[in-house]
Amino acid sequence: MVPVRDSKAPHGPALVLEAGAWVVFIDEMKTGMRLTAS
User: Fold this and answer.
1) What is the DSSP letter of 31?
2) Cβ neighbourhood burial of 7 (10 Å; 0-12, 13-18, 19+)
3) Cα–chain-centroid distance for residue 22?
4) 22 dihedral zone (left: phi>0; alpha: psi -120 to 50; beta)
């Protein structure tokens, strides 16, 4: 699990993603692809 938090609100809620979903997100950001909801 990978917790993601707004850096401007470090004590606020965190979005928690499965590690595999985080890897896909980062890979697509690196390649410039746009994510779409399925």
Assistant:
1) H
2) exposed
3) 5
4) alpha
Pairwise CA distance, residues 3 & 36, whole Å? 21
Instruction: Say which residue the tokens 């595999």 belong to.
Output: 20
DSSP state of 36: -
Q: Which residue has the tokens 């979005």?
A: 15
User: Is residue 25 within 8 Å of 17, Cβ to Cβ?
Assistant: yes
DSSP string, 10-30: TTS-EEEE-HHHHHHHHHHHH
Q: Enumerate residue ranges in the chain where pLDDT < 50.
A: none
pTM of the model: 0.57
